[in-house]
Amino acid sequence: MKDSALPQFLALGLAAPITRALADEQYTHPTPIQAQTIPQALAARDIIGIAQTGTGKTAAFALPILHRLAAAPRRCEPRRCRVLVLSPTRELSAQIVESFTTYGRYLSPRVALAIGGVSLNQQIRALVGGVDILVATPGRLLDLIQQRALGLDGVEIFVLDEADRMLDMGFIHDIRKIVAKLPRQRQTLFFSATMPREIADLAAQMLRDPVKVAVTPAATTVERIAQRVIHVERAGKPALLAELLRRETIDRVLVFTRTKRGADKVVRALAKGGLAAEAIHGNKSQNQRERVLTAFRTGRVRTLVATDIAARGIDVEGISHVINYDLPNVPESYVHRIGRTARAGADGVAISFCDAEERPFLRDIEKLIRMTIPATDHRGGRRTQPTPQAQHARGHSPRRNGHNGHNGHKAEPARHAPQPNGAAARASRKAQVTNGGDIGAIAFMRAPRRPGTPQPERRAPR
Ligand code: AMP
To answer: For the whole model, what pTM was predicted?
Structure first.
């Protein structure tokens, strides 16, 4: 693909080596968050971006950063970085590095990763000559500063990614410490999926006259995912999960539990039933996590059981199903969880188990997403039909595109026709993603299905 195939990216003012890399990636149109963020970031403005993963927010900050670095080339100072990106998890940090490397392939910036769970010495060595871009988790960054392996006085651009998750994970204190070490004169790009009070306060302290861009209010994203609730007794959950894994047409499924122990228990219960699964959570070493993620990515493992924190930042294509084995007690987590499916324009199914104690959590979730999730009853061997379609909770009117707010999906998804694997399939998914081009629309989400229309195609199980 030639650069001329990317007029919209060129119109944003991005340099040719960057649009060339985008053409390689078969990106044709900027996503809404990119269209709104890139021109402002190129103009050196501070930005508050309200966007979830899956909207293309990484490129929204990575592309203008690469452009600005290339426009003002400078030799790296020893033990310094020009750009600092803070992200809450190791996986997300690694993915951000990968994005910079991919989009910067014709510029070759020096990029380094500083995360816990791997050798500190290696990271110290990587920083000796200085780097253009450093992507770090807060704890490891502070370790490096304490070891005098890094100083932040040369930072020109600071990115704080997934600020709300940082707050959930207890990183706010570390972030304040880090921000205090940054030069006052800098550009700050601040991203968060939600904007609770503490996050708004933090942003107000860190940013100078920021431009606000918001493309995916959490509550509307979920309208595009086929959701179901199954009421079930707690003791019935393991058997129900095994049944679903056998019955549903699943490419890759992410199963969420509330605790690490719960994740391991689910894996053991599935193994007893002859179903292979792996768990990923904070007790696992970085090597174990990487091994499991690679197995999941390549399709060797179809079922990954995760806790909220571990799942954050996992960017794996083709997660067809999210199963909430336990409902989260924080309703926003539900939105984060089910957002793991339906990424990059793909279709997604989210199934939530709800036992008696979790009823209040379900109520909170439905209030947040402003719809009633179609439910079936699996208690005591019961099997009821689902409610015919999602209803908006509390009489709220739907917010987008004049669509009626109903999911309109069948409760039991039909078996899907096979779809080609590999590059062609990826390319067609990407095309589907980017053809919208409407700033007001939600990126990467398919149009809501109307009742009675067939399910979109999905790959057959391996
Ligand atoms: P993110 O929200 O940054 O996690 O990005 C979600 C996914 O969208 C990633 O797999 C990106 O490679 C992909 N992506 C980002 N921008 C575009 C674009 N303009 N066109 C197509 N795919 C994109």
So the answer is: 0.59
